[in-house]
Amino acid sequence: MGIKDILKISIYVPILNTLVFFYIFLGHNLGFAIAALTVLMRAILIPVTLPALKGAAKQKELAPQLSELQKKYKDNKTLLAQKQMELYKNHGFNPAAGCLPQILQLVILIVLYQVLLDIFRHPPAYFNEMLYFPFLKFAQTDVFNTAFLYMDLAKKDPYYILPILAGLSQLVLSKLSLPQTNKLEKIAEKTPDKQDDVMYNMQKQMIYMMPVMTIFIGISLPSGLVLYWFLATLFGLAQQWILNKKLLKN
């Protein structure tokens, strides 16, 4: 049994069954089913994403001190790395801790995208062998109802409204996730060190690059995928906002 088979049994089939369950019990409305699946998936991933979000917040908190270390030890990379690790250790931060959650989220996201793509490509009866319960199975003549609001979820958004909304929500999330940019801008203005300018410009590019990419990619994808992307970003935005409020209180 290969990795593809393991992913299919452990992630693909459970996600497919959950989506079909929501589709049937929400009035055969695929848009509502995708929304319900998005909320459920993001809620399940909270124990995984929360430590990663806290780690990112801690890294932003340490950014000014890291910048000072980079200026102080810019000619000695070995000592710089040592001082950075000491700083992380003193503040109880492990920069590698967020890698595994990010990889797990990416794997689930890819599989979920594949489920949605298959839903749009195949008739419902195609999935019967993978559905757990008889009440989830479809007749050979059944077709998925892909109509939602003004869109056909299996096709591109004709007015680009959803990709733009997804891009705007990603922009807000980026700004919430990288509040350190304003501090870096002030440091860059006050100091002649080019390294500060580089750090500021990199963070500024990150804030705007992802939203622009979201819009351009979303324009080419079926609306159902963009709907998931948009709703997942909104959920992430809410998580980040709540976390930022708690950090400000502390």
TrEMBL record:
Compartments in which it is found: Cell membrane; Membrane
Molecular-function GO terms, alphabetical: membrane insertase activity
Gene Ontology cellular component annotations, sorted alphabetically: plasma membrane
Membrane topology note: Multi-pass membrane protein
Keywords, alphabetical: Cell membrane, Chaperone, Membrane, Protein transport, Transmembrane, Transmembrane helix, Transport
Membrane spanning residue stretches: 9-26, 32-53, 93-116, 159-178, 207-231
Domain Membrane insertase YidC/Oxa/ALB C-terminal: 31-245
Pfam families: 60KD_IMP
Highest taxon above the source species: Bacteria
Biological-process GO terms, alphabetical: protein insertion into membrane; protein transport
Sequence similarity: Belongs to the OXA1/ALB3/YidC family.
Protein name, entry field: Membrane insertase YidC/Oxa/ALB C-terminal domain-containing protein
Organism (species): candidate division WWE3 bacterium CG23_combo_of_CG06-09_8_20_14_all_40_14
